[in-house]
Design a protein that fits this description.
The chain has 455 residues and is an alpha/beta fold. It has three domains: 56 residues, OB fold (Dihydrolipoamide Acetyltransferase, E2P) (Beta Barrel); 199 residues, Vaccinia Virus protein VP39 (Rossmann fold, 3-Layer(aba) Sandwich), CATH 3.40.50; 140 residues, OB fold (Dihydrolipoamide Acetyltransferase, E2P) (Beta Barrel), CATH 2.40.50.1070. The strands form four sheets. It has an eight-stranded mixed beta sheet with strand order 7-22-23-21-20-17-18-19, with helices on both faces. Strands 10-9-8-11-12-13-14 form a seven-stranded mixed beta sheet, covered by helices on one side. The chain has nine helices and 23 strands. The chain starts with 9 loop residues before the first strand and ends with a strand. It is globular, with a radius of gyration of 24 Å. A hairpin with a 4-residue loop joins strand 11 and strand 12.
Length: 455
């Protein structure tokens, strides 16, 4: 491969498609070249930065023929902080390309008949900014000031961020106020270069619908002086809940990898999902984009097409939000999740809304599925919303054996979705795949896939 192309070579390429990380992909003598910041159909002069056996990476030197879909990114940190990948293209182009990403993944990996179903146009947002209801950011000292930032792409270099266009205004406001308070308190912030200091991360979740915010701090170690300072965060307007967690593992991928300890205020904050109020703990999962979550759940509801007599089973249910959103149209809803905190939240969510036909179960999924089968609970509709790695093989095997009439698979990763569908296709037909843009300006795409039993 070194003979075909070398590092520092400058070549003229035409962008054919986008990769899963939002980079442009072009081909040089059949070798795929990944080029961040490039748009489909553009002709770009590219300097090669890395060469592997089957692909290479490059950076744009000059755009020879720009796309008419190219725009000036509105964010001053774009291209530096690594948080967004698609701000350089119109929003219409973003959602068109997200559909293409799903189509490309199916074309490449799906082993069934692609002509038997449709991949629909991506459902976008009216305003593709200010949507994130939660953020987890590393803390640093910039001179005397306590600041937060995001890591530059493929690096451990932190880009300090004063204001992120993806965060909802309440999250942004709380971050500013907390950082100002921490600066005034002369708090001891962790410095990775010298391996000194204590405060590592600031985690803020805030719902505009209820004007309630939850602030969590991640420390390297217990330190009474710091904990005393953190307690007073409760005095910041809008903050209803303050907690902290210890994470001494500097190589850990997870930001919170231990118990979350409540400090001040309520243990949970209240959110609102359309007309359903709910409460949530700092370490429980909820979709990051509340407005678009309603569109996602409406698609699930449409796909389920419940008539009132069906039993619904929700796997990886989190705080139970999907099942509870459907509960008034179903006979019975059950949800399972590995997070104890999420299941406690789900039970409270049901009680708050006087939903009596829903029950939630904590623990590994398969033992609960086997128990349900033994007691004769066979769902009519199975909802699966797994993490990025997809559904475990033992659960796929269970589904194959104990066939449900309809499966609604909510996926945040097209590659693992297709891999799981290949496993299920012997017994299930795909009705449609509906991409939804849960994370505008980023390369992430969510999909709702509706499957029906062949038998």
């Amino acid at each position: 491969m070194e003979n075909i192309i070398k590092i520092n070579d400058v070549v003229l390429l035409t962008i054919k498609r986008l990769g899963i990380n939002g980079e442009g992909i072009a081909y040089y003598k059949r070798l795929a070249v990944f080029i961040p910041g490039a748009i489909v159909s553009e002709e770009v002069e590219v300097k090669i930065t890395k060469v592997e056996e089957k692909y290479a990476y490059g950076e744009i030197v000059k755009i020879k023929k720009p796309s008419d879909k190219r725009v000036t990114p509105p964010c001053p940190y774009y291209g530096k902080c690594g948080g967004c990948q698609l701000q350089h293209m119109t929003y219409e182009e973003q959602i068109a390309q997200k559909k293409n990403m799903v189509v490309e993944t199916f074309n490449r990996y799906y082993e069934g008949d692609l002509t038997k179903f449709r991949i629909l146009d991506t459902i976008g947002m009216e305003t593709p900014f200010y949507y994130r209801n939660k953020t987890q950011l590393p803390t640093r000292h910039d001179g005397e000031k306590v600041v937060v930032g995001m890591y530059a792409i493929n690096s451990n270099r932190l880009v300090y961020i004063d204001h992120c266009l993806m965060e909802n205004p309440l999250v942004s406001k709380i971050i500013k106020l907390v950082c100002a308070y921490l600066t005034a308190s002369e708090i001891n912030v962790f410095n990775p270069k010298f391996q000194q200091g204590n405060l590592r991360y600031l985690v803020v979740r805030a719902f505009e619908e209820t004007n309630e915010a939850q602030v969590s701090f991640v420390l390297r170690e217990e330190e009474p002086r710091i904990i005393k300072i953190l307690r007073k965060t409760i005095n910041i307007e809008g903050v209803k809940s303050v907690s902290y967690s210890i994470n001494a593992d500097l190589k850990a991928v997870e930001i919170i990898n231990g118990p979350v300890i409540h400090l001040e205020g309520t243990t949970k904050i209240q959110g609102l999902l359309k007309d359903l109020p709910f409460t949530i703990s700092p370490d429980a999962f909820f979709q990051l984009n509340t407005k678009q979550t309603i569109n996602l759940y409406e698609q699930i509801k449409k796909s389920a097409n419940l008539k009132g007599y069906e039993k619904v089973l929700d796997l990886y249910c989190g705080i139970g939000s999907i099942g509870l959103y459907l509960a008034h149209q179903a006979k019975e809803v059950r949800g399972i999740d590995i997070s104890k905190e999420s299941i406690l939240n789900a039970k409270e969510f049901a009680a708050m809304n006087k939903i009596t036909n829903a029950s939630f179960y904590y623990g590994n999924i398969l033992p609960h599925l086997n128990h349900f089968t033994e007691e004769g609970f066979i769902p009519d509709v199975l909802i699966i919303d797994p993490p990025r790695r997809g559904v475990e093989l033992n659960i796929l095997n269970y589904i194959q054996k104990n066939q449900v009439k309809k499966i609604i698979y909510v996926s945040c990763n097209p590659a693992t979705l297709v891999k799981n569908l290949n496993h299920l296709q012997k017994n299930y037909s795909i009705k449609f795949v509906q991409p939804i843009d849960m994370f505008p300006n980023t390369a992430h795409v969510e999909s709702v896939c509706c499957l029906v039993s062949r038998h």
